[in-house]
Every structure is written in C-alpha cells, then in structure tokens.
Amino acid sequence: MNAQRTINFTLNGLAVTASVAPHHNLIELLQGHFGLTGAREACGQGLCGCCTVLVSGRAVSGCLYLASFVDGAEVTTIEGFDASDQLTPEQEAFIETGAFQCGYCTSGFIIMVSQLLDRHPEPTDNQIKHYLTGNLCRCAAYPEIIEAVKLAGRKRKARDATPVRP
Amino acid sequence: MLMMKAGVFRPAKLVSLRKIESDYTAITVDARGLTIGAMTTLSDIEQSEDVRAHAPLITQTMLTLSNVRVRNVATVGGALAHGDPHMDLPPVLMALDASMTLVGPKGERTLPVADLFTGYYETVLALNELIAFVHVPAQNGKQAAYMKVTTGAVDDWPALGIAVVIVSDADAVRSVRIVASAATDKATRLTSAEAALKGNRIDDKLLKRAAEAAVEEVEFVSDMRGSAPYKRELMRVYVQRAVRAALNESGER
Amino acid sequence: MAPTETPAATTRAGSQIGRSVPRTEGRDKVTGRAEYVHNMRLPGMLVAKIFRSTVAHGLIKSIDTNAAKNVPGVLHVVTIDDVRKLIPNPYYGPAFHDQPILADKKVRFVGEPVAAVLASDPHIAEQAVQLISAEYEELPAVFDEVEALTSNVFVHDELQPAATFADLKHLKGLKNTNLALSFKLRRGDFERAYAGAAHRFEHEFRTQKVLHLPFEPHATIADYKNTGVTLYTASQGPSFVRTEIARLLGWPENRVRIKVPYLGSGYGAKLYIKLEALALALSMIARKPVKLALTMEEMFYQITKHPCTFRIKSGLDNDGRIVARKCEVFWNGGAYADIGPRVTQKAGVTASGPYDIDNVSIDSHALYTNVTPSGALRGFGVPQLVWAYESHTDMIARELKLDPVAFRRKNLMRDGNQHTTSQVLKDAAIEPVMDLVLDRMAWARQLEKGIGVIRRGRGFAIAIKTVTTPTTSVAIVNVSADGSVTLYCSTIDMGQGSNTVLAQIVGEVLNVPAESVRIAQPDTDVTPYDMGTLGSRSTFHMGHAARLAAEEARDKIKQLARDVGEPEGSNIPIAELFKKRYGMQAGNIVGSGTYKPDYVSPAPETGLSPNVTPFWMSSGAGAEVAVDTETGHVEITKLVNVIDCGTAINPKLVETQISGAALMHLGFTMFEKMHFDGGQVTNASLADYKIPGIRDLPGTMENLWVDNFQGNGPFGAKGVGEVATFCVSPAIANAIDDAVGVRLTELPLNPEAVYRALRAKAGNPLDEA
Predict the structure, then answer these.
(1) What is the pLDDT of residues B191-249, one digit of tens each?
(2) pLDDT digits (tens, 9 = 90+) for A22-73
(3) CA angle C149, C155, C157 (to 5 degrees)
(4) Which top CATH class is A89-161?
(5) Mutate to test the interface with C, among A102, A146, A150 (most CBs of C within 10 A)
(6) What is the pTM assigned to this prediction?
(7) CATH of region A5-80, choose from 3.30.110.10, 3.40.50.300, 2.60.120.260, 3.10.20.30
(8) Across the interface, do C631 and B233 touch by the CB < 8 Å criterion?
(9) What are B21-33's pLDDT values in tens digits?
(10) Superfamily name and number for B143-248
(11) Alpha carbon C641 to chain centroid distance?
(12) Cross-chain CB nearest to B5 (options A44, A47, A69)
C-alpha cells in the first residue's frame, strides 16, 4: 500500500515540492529526487552522523527521518552551506587542519560543528567531544576535527568582528 | 524507527501525532514541581532552564544520552513508552519519583513511572493509551546522581545504569531511592539497598552492605556488554559509587 | 625527530617534497560534492538485493523463488544456474578461484549470497527477498582455526588455486583438507637449539574476528552491453577488477572499463573482487545497468580481518640472547580464501619479529572455516603477529627479571644485519624507532603507579613488516599546451592522501606547485595498470612510476625546446614552446613510467630469500594506562606512535596516517569483536559493534617519525598507511601487566576480560559466564 503524498517545503532556501511514499526517508528523498548526495546513509541507525540534515534549524539523522515529516519545514543540507560559492568558516577550517580523510562523514561533521559553534562559540574540549559523540569517523580524523572546531571558532570570531562592506 | 527499519516492527498504519504536538511540548513549573509535555524533545528538556533549576539530574543525564540528533527528535513520552531497559531516562525518572498522566478513550489516569515497566520492552500502557505529561515532583534540595557504565566504546548502551536520589545529613540517611537499569530486564528499584541505608549513617561499611543487598535482590541479564556475574560485580561497585557521587554531586563516570 | 614543515636535511629535494600541502580534494569533501558509488544513480538502473544463507554449512536442497518473482515490480530473481548460462565458470578469487558468484550447491557461511532480486525500487526488491525460501541439508560446521587443521569437517571438497600463480599449482585438486596453504621458514636448527637452551618459554596468543567497516559500504554499478561493460565500483584496485572481469567474460581487457570516483575508505576491504562479479552477472541477465550496494549490516557478511592463533616458543641462553624461536600461526580464513593465502605467506615472513635469532622455525597456515571470509585489513596480518611476539617478549623479560629495553636491545635486528629470511636490512630504522618511543615515554623516569583503586602502568612494543612484492605500477604524465599538468594513474585516494603526495612528486620533478597538478579520476580506459592501493605500496611504487613519468615528460619538454630552437636553460614558458611548435595552443607532451622492484621468491623449503622486500617498515608504540581495579576499565592516558617512513613527503598527511592507523587499532585492541552464535553474527550493526568515537581518544597522543632516508625510495620515501597499526595492542597489554600484574593473551582487552584476570590473579576467580 504505497499511497504517495505531495509535500511542499523549503530546500536550501528554495521552495520545492515532491511526491513521497510513507516509508521513504529523508535521504532517499534528497538523493533520489533532488540529486543531493552530501548526506549519506552509512550505519542506518542514527549513530554515525553521515546522514545529518538540518530540519527547521535542528540537526536530525536523515536516515531515520520520514520524508513526509519535512512537509512545511525548512530543510538545509551541506550543499546549502556554500550556496554563495563562499566556504563557511567550518569548511575552511576543515581544509586547513586536514580534518577528514575519505570524506564520507565530513558533511555530517561540518553541519554538527556549525550547530555546536552556534551554541558554544568558544567550546572546551569536553564540550566539543560531548557534542560530537553522534559523529563517527572510521578513518579516525578526530584529533584534526577537534583542532578544526577551535580554528572555526576563531574564524567566526574574526568574521563577526570585521565590519561587512555594503 | 529503528525497529521499523530492521523489519522487526511492521505496522499496518502509522499515525503521526504532529497535529496535537503543540499541546504537549510545554515545560511548566509550580509548587508541586515540573510538568513536561510528553512530546517535548529531549533537546528542549536538556536546554530548559526550569529543568536545570528544579531537577538538574535530568539535565546532566542528557549530556550522555545517545547523541544530539537523536535528542533533537526523540521525546520524553517516546523514551518511556518504548520500555527499553537500557535507556537512561527511566531509572532517572523513577529515582526522582516522577509520574505520568496517561490519556485514552476512557479518559485520564495518573501512574508513577516506577509502575510503568513490566518486563523487557513491556509496559502497562494499553494499545490505545498515550503518555501526555510527565510530572517531576519538587526536589527540595535532594541530592542525586546517575552513573552510566559502558564496557565497549565510551559511548554505548550501558552495561549498567544506577540512579540515586538521596537526602542525608551527618547523622543518617533520611530518604533514598536507588534504581538500576540495563543489567536487568527492566529498570528496577533496589529496595533492599534502600532499606539498608535508610536511617543509618553513611560510611564504607554501610555502603558495602547496601551494595550486597542490591546484588542479592536482582536477576542479571547476560549480553555482549557483560556476563551476569560481571554485571553483578559492576552493581556491587556502582551502588556505592553512585551514592557517593550523589552526596558529592560529582556527576557520572 | 619531531614532525617539521620543511624538508629534513637528508631529503634531496627542491620545494614540493616535505610540504604539508593541504589535500587536493578538500573542497569537494567539505562541500558534500564528492561522489561515491554508493550514492550514484544511472538512468534506467535496476537495484539488486541479496537473499543470504541462514545456515553455516549445508547442501542446498531447493530454492523457492516463485513468491518473490510474483511481487509486482520485480523483474528477475537470479540463482547460480541463471549466472552459469552466461558465465560458464562463475568462480573468482585473487589466490584461489574458490568463491562462486552465488552459492553453488552448497553454502559455506551464514550470510553467503544464495539468490538476488532485481527491481527498480529497492524497497520492492527487499520485500521480494523476504519471500524467497531455501531448504538446506545442514552439515557440521567448523569455526575455529586450530580445530580446522585437523577437523573432519571440510569447508571445500577440493582446493582450487588460481592457475595464474605458479607457487600455488601444487595445491590443485587437494581434497580432505581445510589447509589452503602453508608457508614455511627454516633457519638453523630450532629443535636442537631449543632443547639446549638455558631457558624455555611457550605461549599462545589469540585475536578475535573484527572488520574494516568503511563508512561507504561496498557498492558496484555494472552496465553491461555486448560491446563492452563498464563498472562503477567502490574498489581500491580497478586494474585487478578489470583483469578478473575480463577473465570471467573471456574478453580482452580493453572491452572492460572500471571507474572509481571518490572511495569512502577501504582499509583493505575493497580489494580484488567483492560485488563486481555478481553485479556483472545481474546486468548481463537484465540487460540494464544494475546497482548492488550493501547496507552496513551486510558488511558483516562480506569480508573481515583474520582471527589468529599464534603459538610461540623461545629458547634463551643465560645472557638473555634468544637462541631459538618457533612460530606456529593459524589464520582463520573463513569460507573463501580471498587474499588469505598471501596474508599467510607475507606475514609469515616476519612472524619471528625484529629479533636476530640464529635458529628459527616458522609455520604459517591458512585455514578454511565456516564464517565470513577474512581478507586484507590494514596491516595484512602483521598486527596479529606483533600482538603475540611483543607480548611474549615482555613476558620473557618479566619472568627472567630482565629490563624490557635492555632485553630488546640485546636481541634487536639492526640496519645492516641479516633478517631471518637472510635478506640484509637496509634503511630499516628499527632501533631509532625504539629509541624515540622510549624518549617520548620518558622511560628513564619512574612512573608513579599509585596505591589506590586506580593503578597506572606503561608498556611498549616494536615491529617490522615487508611490503607485498613483486607488484607493478604504471603512470602517465600529460603536459597540455598551456603547460598545465595531469597525472593519470590507477592509485585510489581513499583518504590516505595519495593524490596529494603524487601531485607533490610530479610537481617536484616538473618544478610546478603541487596544487597545480591535476590527478585524473581512476578509469581503466584512461589510467594505466596499478596492482592495487594496498599494503603501503603506493608512495613507493606509484611514487616511482609517477616520478619516472614526470622525468620523461621533463626530458621531452627539453627536447621540444631544442626542436624549436630555444637555447639550453632559456626558461621560456612551456605554453610558448607549444605555440612555437604547433602554431597555436595545441598538442601534448606525454611521459610514462613503469616501476616494478626486484624480488627473489622465498625458497619453498626454507622460506629464505636475499631480496624479499624492496623496503622495510618499522614502528613502535608506547602506552600509559590507568586501570580501575574494581571494574577492569582501562583508560589509555598516553599513546606514543613512532614510525620509520623515510622522507615524509607531506608531513601533515604522514601524521594523520599514523594517528588514524593507531586509533583504528585502538578499537580492535580494546573493544571491537564480532559475536557469533553457531556461525550467525549476533552484533551486525554499529549499535552493537562499537567502533572508536571522539571520546575514545587517549588522554594524550603523539605521532612521530624518525629521521631516515629510504635510499631506493622516491625522494627517500616509503610506505606509511599501515605501519602505525602494528604495536598498539601489545604496548597496551604490556602496560596493563605493568600496572596490575595481569597478562591477557586474547583480544579485545575489554573491562570484563581485565577484571576476570584480576580476580583470577587474586585467587578468587569470577563465576563463568
């Protein structure tokens, strides 16, 4: 019994529509319908963070989030982060500290790190580790990631201190 | 969600409660204590200043409860209704002497969280009953701790959880609730341990006696996180450590 | 010496070698734009889901696919009989052609693929799989590697070595055995020396079944047409895949195209043939592109690390010299050989450790058992060996009251000495590695062990490894008319940074910034032969090939300058040379390079060879631990990892390879384990099979390399990817022994194992589970 329903939502700032089956999860919707593969299903249990997506400002595990639930919501994926072709402080920091290897978990980490810095602009090591327990990296780039979080925090501070030219 | 994905749970119909969500996501405080809407996300509970002020044990427990994304979506009602013996909130809420308002076609009823679990993933909830509110009584200066013992990676389902809420002065333990989880088939109050402590002065000997009483009254479940004999040892050690932690408010492991 | 940004004094290099160039593919990865096969879709593609055996060992009586076929949306349900119509000999494997594309009359492990369903909707395919049923006549099963050697339960009726390997020919047709292959090394006379030794020690060590779990699970999309087949596959070795697929089809290689976009890691899991043969067969049957992509759960039924039992005997004289050593190693290969026989041989070569011992006997056995096949995992068997011999070393030292450092120094192989194989060690910085570990551990200072519930201790370990040899790498460097440079090679960058390092090598030779060198995506229509991205071989082998290709291109540029009449050393931009030659921006200069090191195969009866490896890898680890004596929990407060990598072409990348390898092995050491119930994996998910998270980091960790120059390496460099995996396990077990006086001889070193050992030592053992 696959009654499709039409959902309307905002995706990376644009109003979109899609037809989804009740059992489809958000990753299937993003990859299958919109060709966005930055969020990926790896563990399938919400433990690794590779499928991280922002729904109405909150990070969720896309592989456990039914597609129909985003009806009326604002969805932001990693692809929406450099929408203006400008890397975010977190993305720059990850490159500079080499905070990734194979890259499969990287999208998820970057989204969670931006959420972490929103909440704790100058996080302690403990805060960083506790916030990122839900992001696993089999390549074990954790030490570089911790460095990247701190560097991103400093970059954000510098950016916010610099007046933006009109 | 996990059970549906694994094909273990195959509902014919799935009904979303979103449309009534707004009625069950408030956190309010009054003289009796906290009232938390059952559809409040664990993240909202984690960040609530009211919860931190009135039941800080809950706030601390959230720090190692699964991960941020799960907490952003999971609700306190869901955490209770699932009946999973490994979860962190059931023993904590039981130790805090929390209760729930349940709603069904026949109306409302109140039930202590301590009476919710009947067995492994089993609760007393009728199929047409929902948890609507969770009530946490005013703590009035009670001290508390929750210790979560993992044996694999640091972040894991626990092999044992021990939650303690205690009132004790230099002379005696005035009141105490100790609840164990994960090592048993359901979250379980360690009443013999409580009895051993109540009315007596805390010292090493007393804590050892209470721990001995605790391991005698419980049946341990062997799993890949620990054999029954090992979990028994963990309980013996952690009943003592958890009571000490509550009195020192030094937090979890 | 500590890692530095600038080239070390011994590096004969210009400006690209020794730079910590940021990874060239960084932007794609941080913006989520990197493409991986697991997330790819082709138009008109079908999706395949697999029906797997629930029995560890059995004859297939029947397979009922009717209900599955009748599910609306299902296009095909396939068994081996359907495959055989198109691929007459549907068996594959890098050493033995023993693995059928789908189970053939028999199943040999729980999870073995028995049938496949094709549909355009993966949910429908999955639904149909649930409706397939099979009847098995169950056979007794064998799970343990030592038992398998003498068991009457035979996983295979007959051994089937691949015809391509001369050294395996003698095994063909052997029956009534689970022993796929044995490697033997004999030096001196062990029996006599051991019998005459003043002190004798005998220990047994075991390791558990663990697995790679790359976050991108295995995935292949096969697009078959009569005129040619293209496979998009998550593989570390596209050239090998091409060879095998061509062999299965009876086609020339040039009709088979293998493409690998970004690889979501591998660690050895994505080598040889994994899903490629099945995806190919399904695409041939469906006459459409077919995607076969595993879930994380299915990874537990694909390929794992070799569990290992190592029985080691050492005889010592009264001066603390090891005079005799015997190694009996049993490798649990699982139901299909995969690369197990090579692990058995190659690891067998260093089983006696970095110790100079006159009388050595090594027997290394590859055994078949009824569990998921074991294959290549970062370290290629060496971590299991070092677990045993470095624990053994410390146990001997303790027993004889010898200082563990002095004991090792007395017996250590040094650069210039003969290795057990008789090859002379060259550019092998074993002792400097040990010295640096001890220095960073402040070994000369006493460690405060504590008297309370928490006890502290420390330990260290050292090891060596050879590189799988002989293997070949080919590279092409293409200079375009505007002077921009592209490198074509089939080395797969799966996060280890090979693209960046190779760009640095090419940039060094052509005197251009590494960042300006483009690496083409591996595609066997375009990128030439490479044996595979494995065994720490790429920096050395492909590094040489890329260097040679760049040198040829450079020489051709010089020739072009002469051709167009430019004086020597005129420094005219390359674009100008092309314009002069062709009248416009046109043309290419192409240089190619091939590298294959020399090798002398070990003599079959003695295992000796004067040239068994072009370079030696050495590493050491030191650990400080804090043990909770009431619960057995072990905290790693300090971990020091030291390697010899020759020149660090990219210091930052070297550091992260050391760190990543050590942390992965921390998981294998402390808590990872596949649990079984009669052959069935009971923890096939990340919820129950825990891997290290960010909170599992040691209190402090140092990742260092010694100052060394590999004379025959590209710019003095050699392999880095595996070397930091070797010593983590024994360093920690030695530290636990130091802290609380208990010796664990099996992995993992989880709290319950430590606690039980503490209770046993106190004469008050814990009840059995």
Answers:
(1) 999 999 999 999 999 999 999 999 999 999 999 999 999 999 999 999 999 999 999 85
(2) 999 999 999 999 999 999 999 999 999 999 999 999 999 999 999 999 999 9
(3) 105
(4) mainly alpha
(5) A102
(6) 0.96
(7) 3.10.20.30
(8) yes
(9) 999 999 999 999 9
(10) CO dehydrogenase flavoprotein, C-terminal domain (3.30.390.50)
(11) 19
(12) A44
User: What does C93-129 look like in DSSP terms, one character per residue?
Assistant: -SSB--EESS--SEE-STT-EEEEEEESSHHHHHHHH
Cβ-contact C195, C382 below 8 angstroms: no
Catalytic residue at C722?
yes
- Give the nearest partner residue to A133 out of B14, B18, B67, using CB atoms: B67
C143, two tokens: 């799970």
SS3 B177: strand
Q: How far is CA C598 from CA C428, C470, C533, C611, in A?
A: 18, 7, 19, 7
Close Cβ partners of A86 (under 8 Å, ≥ 6 residues apart) = none
Instruction: Decide: C195 and C375 in contact? Cβ < 8 Å.
Output: no
Residue pair A134/B67 in contact (Cβ under 8 Å)? The answer is yes
Are C630 and B226 within 8 A, CB to CB? no
- Taking only residues 148 to 187 of chain B, the set having a beta carbon closer than 8 angstroms to any beta carbon of chain A reads 155
Please provide the DSSP assignment of B189-250 as one string. Answer: E-HHHHHHHBTS---HHHHHHHHHHHHHH-PPPPBTTB-HHHHHHHHHHHHHHHHHHHHHT-
Q: C190 is written with which tokens?
A: 């062990």
Domains of chain C, each with CATH number or no CATH: 26-34+471-595 (3.30.365.10), 43-141+218-293 (3.90.1170.50), 308-468+603-761 (3.30.365.10)
Confirm or reject CATH 3.10.20.70 for domain B21-137, answering yes or no: no
Per-domain residue ranges for chain B? 21-137, 143-248
Of B151, B154, B156, the CB nearest to C752: B151
Chain C CB contacts of B234 below 8 Å: 631
CB contact under 8 Å between A101 and C497, yes or no, is: yes
